[in-house]
Design goal:
Length: 516
């Protein structure tokens, strides 16, 4: 499509300009990682929201949940908005900003090291982040590639031996690497703001266009048709899927409280006034994006004639959009906006995850062994590792390494499960001890390992191979993640009550500057 190619070229040019302009603000690590801690309300809110929602929600989750449980999938979007955004900003933002200022912490592993006076905890957190977030970044590529291939089925002919999917992922990798390496967090925030506007416009267009489609015929008619196919598709609880819904809401909403790439946005926000405004903006953003995506996914059965595409759930939304918009010029313009929507969602999430995983090595891992490793050398290595992280996630997504693909499904639950207890209790309780924090991390990790092992053992006889059993067990990854978060959160205060109290001077420093 010529129109889509032009839109893609203009978008790419804009990202290049943002990288060049933002490079002026990255003379120090504080500027590169946090933008000098001077991000305003709108920039912070959109950075948080666009990191929250990647191509995975539009292509993977919306297609699968919309097809399987219908309109009830929108409850996940509501939960993400109210818990993952509204509560997160209200409960965490001010306290995180103040405490990370007081501790001079630029990353979550640094927070753990300074809050609990333990460099080994910093090292452990850094390794965990890098190991699980790089595969998570690969899943972002996969989601975008499905839509790109549907819109440009012959794009792979441009480069011999390269498929449309691979070409799309390469474009995303190059653009993300360029503006991230040049502009750091400021480039991320600027691009996220623009990408957020595109996402809002794209979702609005998707919803309206799908409702006006002749196969849908408006909201009332859509409701009647879905009910005729299966009453559970219009049930408020998704029929017999209430437990499934609850675990996914909890994992994707509460999980943000312990994900380093999400709470990092609170480090950089400018002041309390900006936090208040950002709370409202990010909540509304999440409500529109989350509910809009799952609503469109639920219309897949109507537009596709209640027949699941050959590509499975990941092809539901791409096929739905191609059929809904058609080949007319207005349709091409609209599909171009949708392409930019998914591209924006992918790049914003990818850049935040890459920055988090890269600094886990340069700032946190190497910092344990080389405390004097700072200045230009640290900056150069951080930029280099950003490129390496982008490349690794591209390779994992491209070549579909079996074990890596399955690790993706656990990454959110593992990271949040290990960090949510030590992080939240460290912010709010002066009685939280180093031992309690360690036990909370290990409780989350052991819970995940135990559940996955049990799932593999249960599926091994019928699966035929260890990998297939591992893959089958990943279906229950939301349950494992929620249980890991619960274990981490419960264990920290219990162990802290029976272990050596933290040093008074350490606590005083941590809770200085209004972190009370």
């Amino acid at each position: 499509m010529t129109t889509a190619l032009i839109a893609l070229a203009l978008f790419a040019l804009l990202m290049v300009v943002i990288g060049i302009v933002s490079s002026r603000t990255t003379n120090t690590m504080d500027g590169f990682l946090l933008g000098g801690r001077k991000m305003g309300a709108w920039m912070s809110a959109f950075a948080y929201g666009t990191t929250y929602f990647s191509a995975v929600i539009f292509v993977g989750y919306a297609g699968k949940f919309g097809w399987d449980i219908g309109l009830a999938g929108m409850w996940i979007g509501v939960g993400n908005a109210l818990i993952g955004c509204l509560f997160a900003w209200k409960i965490l933002a001010k306290r995180v900003r103040n405490m990370t200022h007081a501790l001079n912490a630029k990353t979550m592993p640094e927070f753990f090291a300074e809050r609990y006076d333990c460099k080994k905890m910093k090292l452990f957190a850094a390794v965990l982040i890098f190991f699980f977030l790089v595969p998570y970044a690969a899943s972002v590529y996969k989601g975008l590639g499905s839509l790109f291939s549907a819109i440009f089925p012959n794009a792979g002919n441009l480069i011999p031996g390269v498929t449309s999917n691979q070409l799309c992922m390469l474009i995303v990798a190059v653009l993300t690497g360029f503006y991230l390496v040049l502009g750091g967090y400021v480039a991320i925030a600027l691009s996220d703001f623009i990408q957020g506007i595109i996402m809002l416009g794209g979702v609005a267009i998707m919803v309206v266009a799908v409702l006006l489609n002749s196969d849908v015929g408006g909201l009332a008619n859509a409701f009647s048709q879905l009910k005729a196919i299966n009453p559970s598709l219009v049930s408020i609880t998704g029929g017999g899927n209430l437990n499934f819904l609850m675990f996914n809401i909890l994992l994707t909403s509460v999980g943000t409280f312990g994900l380093p790439q999400m709470v990092h946005k609170f480090y950089a926000v400018k002041d309390d006034h900006a936090i208040k405004r950002a709370t409202v903006v990010s909540t509304l953003f999440a409500l529109v994006i989350g509910c809009g995506a799952y609503f469109v996914g639920s219309m897949g059965r109507l537009i596709l004639g209640n027949k699941l595409p050959e590509g499975g759930y990941d092809s539901v939304v791409p096929e739905l959009l191609i059929k809904a918009f058609g080949e007319s010029l207005p349709g091409q313009i609209l599909i171009s906006v949708i392409l930019l929507l998914v591209l924006s969602a992918s790049m914003s999430t990818l850049s935040s995850v890459v920055l988090t995983s890269s600094t886990a090595i340069t700032v946190d891992f190497i910092g344990v062994f080389r405390p004097d490793f700072k200045g230009r050398g640290q900056m150069r290595l951080t930029r280099l590792l950003c490129l390496v992280s982008v490349a690794l996630s591209f390779i994992f997504a491209n070549f579909n390494f079996a074990i890596i693909v399955s690790i993706m499904s656990y990454s959110w639950g593992v990271v949040a499960g290990c960090f949510v207890g030590p992080f939240i209790w460290g912010l709010f309780s002066k009685k939280t001890t180093r031992t309690g924090a360690w036990c909370g991390m290990f409780a989350g990790l052991v819970t995940i390992i135990t559940f996955v092992s049990a799932g593999i053992a249960q599926n091994l006889s019928g699966a035929g191979s260890f990998y297939e059993a591992f893959k089958l067990a990943s279906v229950n990854s939301p349950i494992y993640g929620v249980c890991a978060m619960a274990a981490s959160f419960i264990v920290v205060p219990i162990v802290s009550a029976f272990t050596k109290k933290p040093d008074a001077r350490l606590v005083q420093r941590a809770f200085a500057g209004g972190a009370n």
